[in-house]
Write a structure and sequence with these properties.
six-stranded parallel β-sheet; eight-stranded antiparallel β-sheet; 21 strands; alpha/beta; single chain; FAD; GMC_OxRtase_C; about 25% strand
Amino acid sequence: MHIDARNIDNNSLIEGDICIVGSGAAGISMAIELLNTPYKVILLEGGGFEYDSQMQDLYKGKTTGQRYFPLESARLHYFGGTTGHWAGFCSTFDPIDFKERDWVPHSGWPIKREDLDPYYSRAQKNLDLGPYEYSAKYWQDKDPELKGLSLDENVVFNKMWQFSTPTRFGTKYRDAIVKAPNIHLYTYANVTDITANQNVSAIKEVTVKNFAGKQHTVRAKQFIIACCSIQNARLLLASNKQAPKGLGNQNDNVGRYFMEHLEIKSAEMWLTKPDVLKLYQWDWGVKHRAELAISEDIQRKHRILNGTASLMPLEVAKNQTPMIDLWSADTAKTNAFMKEGERRGKTQKELKSHKAFELFTRVEQAPNPNSRVTLDAQKDALGVQRANLHWELTPLEKHSLRKIYQIIGEQIGISAAGRVRLMEYLQDENDNTWPEFTGGGWHHMGTTRMADDPKKGVVDANCKVHGIANLYMAGASCYATAAAPNPTLTLVALTIRLADHIKQKVKTTV
């Protein structure tokens, strides 16, 4: 069922069993899991079904620290959310990503990789991926032409990615949600405040507003906030009339530990003879490929972060504009990322064997409490304080990036396949600065991180906000560490896990 919140009576009271705030990958995945259940589900979307510049303006904010993209361009504010311009890259987190690492401050999740395996399998279907298989051998057995470099897999291994079409959640799942008798989708219902009971131990209601001047109240027994990492933190911080520091922020953790993937060209690989290296090639339409990754034992030995290296023919890579320069405030509207990606893919597809490749990195950011989202003094058009993102890196990221390529270079040399040349910004081991072309992957993570100890995080192992009985956070804001892979597959898996928990809990409250 779909209701436009601009067209109902002002100050309407909307009631249900479960309220989901946000309809991106997390919010829609949650709603899909609740289809045809006996529970009345209220799904709140701030925008409509199409891009709206007025809605997009609500995501404007300030950035400080490491250079970053304009905030209003990094997320889409309509039904389907940022799946409207994602590229479909999917891979699982590694076991080490969930473990406490003594060389990575604030690392460690209260869950293990194996806890997510059954949910990863289910998430594959949501994202239109293939079988739940992420070993290079599986795919090479199916296609003997997927040849890669002959490296010691105990040191550098081939980590597989699968690629969604990419699935546009707003398109694929719209009819199912609109036609579902128990799902009540309200568009133009932008949540501006959360109200708790007197001792702030449970949520009573949320307030929604829109540009038609309407304000409504939504009450439910369980609330799930699924607005993306920056907006999740912003909403908790802005809901401060009962808790001056913001809801769930009694230990000053909300908004902290914002993480991104550093995505940056890092080295060149020159082969002794030209090769296609099909295992590593990607263009639009390819369903899987590998990237070079460092084994857990070697990460421990060298005390480095997790990261991967993708290969692109050097003659193609040299003609590309860094995404940090390409991505502007208007990009969300023009969808320049998808157009540029398609252009790059078509260009790459025409090429065959190559002797030189650019090595491009995706490396996790170490959890850093100083990398954070706070509230700005300026308010948006609906009266909510805007977000201020301070993106701050540490020397561990630069050390890890440099060491990753030293390890890969050693292995390439040992195999006699060729040589690796680090880019100039990585050659001085005492240099912790970053070049102008340093970028991120638009992979917002952290800000309501998961931890058993309320002093170390915002939500528990079930994504429930510490100290508040019926408030949950969904999406990558719950990540304790960023890992190397793109976050969407894990985000959906974690949401399906949360949905199972909510279904069990709601039985006792409805």
